[in-house]
Structures are given as C-alpha cells and as structure tokens.
Amino acid sequence: MREVMLAKSAGFCYGVRRAVELARRTAEGGGNCWMLGDLIHNRFVVEDLARRGIRKTADSALLGPDDTVIIRSHGELKSVLDALEQRGVRCVNATCPNVIRIQRLVAQAEAEGRQPVIIGEAAHPEVAGIASWCLSPLVFDGPESVQAWLDTPESKREIPMTVVAQTTCIRELFESSWKIIKKECTNVKIFDTICDATHKRQSEAAEIASQVDVMVVVGDRKSANTKHLTEICMQSCSRVLQIEAADELSADDFNGCSVAGLTAGASTPAGIIKEVYATMSEEIRAAEGKEESFEELLN
Ligand code: F3S
C-alpha cells in the first residue's frame, strides 16, 4: 500500500499556469509592471512575482500610460478595465478563458432580456467580476439562498433566467440550486460553467479522501477552490488538514495513520506540493517503512 496517495490533479490548473507565465514574460520585458491585488491566490507565487519586478496595487486609478497591468486569472471588474483603457494603461489580460466565457454569457443573457443568475460566492473576485458584466445579476451561494429569494414577494418566476456557476463551485451545490430554479420558474437556461479542471480535482479529492486515514489539502487560505476541496474531503474523511505549506505539519497529525492523501488547490505551485509530500512521507514512513518518490506518482 502506498504511504501517501497524491492526487494527479493537484496544483496549478491551466488558467493559473497561463496567468503566471504571462506575468513572468511581461516582467522580463521590463517597465512598470503591476498586478491589481494578488495575481492568484497564493502568497508564495505573489512574492515570487514581486521579486521579478511586478508591483502590487489596490488602486488602479494611480496607473497611467507608462504602466502595464496584468489582469488576474479570476478577471476584473468591467468598470476597472474600461477605466484602465481610457487612461491608456497597457493591459495584459490573464483572465482565464473559462471566466471570460461566463462574463460573456451573463452579458448576452441581459442583452436578450433574461435575468442573469450566478451561483457562487458574491464576495469572491471572480464572481464580482462576472457580475459586473451585467446591470442586475442575482448571486446565490447555494440552494438555501435561492429558496429564500423565491419565497420573497420580489421574486418574479415568469422572467426568463440564465443560470451560470462560479468556475470553482461545488457541483452538488450548483445542481441543487439550479434544480430549485428550474422547478419553480417557467423559462430557465442553465450553463454548467464549473471548469473541468475543478470538477476533476474535486472528484479525485473525494475518491482519495474516502480511502485514507488523514487527508491533507494544500492551498492559500484565501483560495475558494482550496476551501471547497477541504469541505469535499471532510464528507468522507474524519481527519482533514488544510495547510499553506509543509511547516504547518507535525508528527502528531499522523498518529495512527498508515495511509494519507494529498491534494492541492489550483493556485498551489508544484514546489510546495513536493515539500508537503516529502514531509508527509517522512512521518508515515516511520510507521510503515516504505518510500515512494513524488515524480513516480506523477508519472
Ligand atoms: Fe480557469 Fe478553471 Fe483554473 S476556470 S483559472 S482553469 S480553475
């Protein structure tokens, strides 16, 4: 039996990898490079980009024609992008194509007289960005809030609706939400916009969590997809640890554990996963006396 079961889907997704590569290439070109807040939800990556010369600002109004700004993979508010363009700021758009598709879907829905409905976390930058592509979106974080809205006098069930999901939404949560809307409202179009990478990562995490004594989820505490992975793992494993880096683990975490599982959020670099894997292997090896390399498991 393996000591540590490593999820093959752990770590950078296509959209995050693309954003980081675009940012690094932009930095190599020199000049005044900026990111608006964190480019991705991982402090190690953000610190690395800062060392390469990409500065962070929360105030896009300070940027001008001499500046280049890299738009994060989650996307940005439409009003911010419009203002940057008007001021002549060069924008390198690293918004994930999956997110751009949702932005277009909600804009098109509204143009067609439909009510855009987003299932996701209203405060998350991706959702705030998507919502900004239309004038009056409805954002629900799950079936309870959908039902609560339907129970209010303001809900208009006869209005045509277009329902989309935050790319990292938990699938069950999305499905239970749209099913309520579909049942109660007369004209509903549903677009399953949960990204494939997220879906695979969540399924694999659930599968591994159901077979191990301890499940470790690595990712930034601000990362929504990491948080969702933790929630999913907790459904089938009673000992789930969410950490940002290997130094948060201790031997006590693996007491009585013969098999542990490891997955990581979409913004977690391979180097961090490798360190966590090595630390976990050390602890478990003490119990079972067996070793397997990180590279072997990825191949
Ligand atoms: Fe894009 Fe999916 Fe990653 S939406 S940023 S590929 S999690």
Question: What keyword list fits this structure?
Answer:
four-stranded parallel beta sheet; alpha/beta; 12 strands; binds FE3-S4 cluster; 4-hydroxy-3-methylbut-2-enyl diphosphate reductase; 299 residues; 17% strand
Produce a short descriptive summary.
This protein is α/β, with parallel strands linked by helices. It has helices at residues 14-28, 43-51, 78-86, 97-111, 125-131, 143-150, 171-184, 196-209, 224-234, 270-288, 294-298; strands at residues 4-6, 32-36, 54-57, 67-71, 90-93, 115-119, 138-140, 161-165, 188-190, 214-218, 240-243, 260-264.
Structure, explained:
This protein has 299 residues and is of the alpha/beta class. The protein has eleven helices and twelve strands. The strands form three sheets. A four-stranded parallel β-sheet has the order 1-12-10-11, sandwiched between helices. The structure holds FE3-S4 cluster. FE3-S4 cluster (F3S) is lined by residues 13-16, 73, 96, 98-99, 167-168, 195, 197-198, 266. Belongs to the IspH family. (2E)-4-hydroxy-3-methylbut-2-enyl diphosphate binds at residues 41, 74, 124, 167, 223, 225, 267. This is 4-hydroxy-3-methylbut-2-enyl diphosphate reductase. The active site is at residue 126.
Q: Structural class from helices and strands? A: alpha/beta
Number of helices: 11
Task: Catalogue the ligands.
Answer: FE3-S4 cluster
Q: What distance lies between the first and last C-alpha atoms, to the nearest angstrom?
A: 18 Å
Instruction: Provide the succession of SSEs.
Output: EHEHEEHEHEHEHEHEHEHEEHH
Low-confidence stretches: none
Mean pLDDT: 92
Quick one: biggest sheet? 4 strands, parallel
How helical, in percent, are the residues?
Answer: 40-55%
- Strand % is 15-25%
Principal-axis shape equals: flat
